[in-house]
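From the methods appendix. Each design record in this collection lists the tokenized structure first, followed by the designed amino acid sequence. Records were kept in a plain field format so they could be parsed without special tools. The example shown here is representative of the layout used throughout.

RECORD:
FOLD TOKENS (285 positions):
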């Protein structure tokens, strides 16, 4: 008879294999047990049932947006939401809705990695002007701060999940989990760290079927790629900081290259949660 530890390890292996194959975990008939550094959690990973749950008041230091499953159990938007949704589609977790300025981000050092408002010297942070797109992260990705990317001036990763800029017309909500198609990537260098921006579109957008690569974005969303680059280049200037830079010729990459970035950072995340690399202060729970 298999021990409990062996059964848990077998289930965890099965979960990793299924997620890596891009299968829709929401179709699994039973719960999947997966084990991480701090605790073992059983969660029904039906992404259609995931919903945000607020704790505290918005625009306060205590405000958090947790992600909960259909049974009301907390899950991590970074670790538990599967990256792949199948057929070249990926899950995207919204941190900052379009046309808002509060700098919301996943708390990578807190259990269940809820979304909170970033702070500086104890004060809540805001962008100097609204961001014009839904902004957030790809789950199960990580920009390794020890990996020097030879394509991008040898810059090291910023120790965060990969950022996503979603260009669809609908304004999403904090904590929404959307299915998106990647279209391009921008290699931003922020104070010497590599901070990828993956440009994507939600599958429910009216123009989603028209855009499948970087050239389609310029055709159907003219000026958007330049606007995204310029927005992220300049947003720190009002605070007296220098402009951010972009590598790779200061231009967006193809979809193929964006998929390469997603794959590489997913592999880095897998090493992180398997504890093949030091986690430091990052929460794996």
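DESIGN:
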């Amino acid at each position: 008879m298999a021990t409990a530890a062996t059964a848990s390890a077998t289930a965890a292996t099965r979960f990793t294999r299924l997620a890596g194959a891009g299968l829709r975990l929401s179709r699994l008939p039973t719960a999947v047990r997966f084990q991480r550094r701090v605790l073992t959690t059983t969660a029904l990973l039906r992404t259609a049932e995931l919903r945000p749950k607020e704790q505290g008041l918005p625009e306060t230091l205590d405000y958090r947006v947790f992600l909960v499953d259909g049974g009301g159990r907390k899950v991590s938007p970074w670790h538990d939401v599967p990256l792949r949704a199948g057929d070249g589609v990926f899950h995207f977790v919204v941190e900052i809705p379009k046309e808002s300025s509060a700098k919301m981000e996943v708390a990578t050092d807190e259990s269940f990695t809820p979304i909170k408002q970033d702070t500086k010297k104890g004060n809540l942070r805001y962008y100097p002007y609204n961001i014009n797109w839904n902004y957030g992260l790809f789950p199960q990705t990580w920009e390794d701060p020890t990996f020097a990317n030879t394509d991008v001036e040898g810059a090291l990763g910023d120790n965060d999940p990969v950022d996503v800029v979603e260009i669809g017309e609908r304004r999403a909500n904090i904590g929404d989990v959307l299915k998106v198609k990647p279209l391009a990537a921008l290699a931003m260098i922020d104070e010497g760290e590599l901070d990828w921006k993956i440009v994507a579109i939600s599958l429910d957008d009216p123009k989603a079927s028209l855009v499948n690569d970087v050239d389609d974005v310029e055709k159907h969303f003219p000026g958007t790629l330049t606007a995204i680059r310029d927005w992220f280049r300049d947003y720190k200037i009002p605070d007296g900081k220098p402009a951010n830079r972009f590598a790779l010729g200061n231009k967006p990459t193809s979809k193929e290259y964006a998929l390469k970035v997603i794959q590489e950072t997913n592999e880095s995340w897998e090493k992180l949660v398997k504890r093949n690399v030091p986690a430091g202060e990052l929460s794996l729970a």
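APPENDIX NOTE: The first strand starts at residue 32 and ends at 35.
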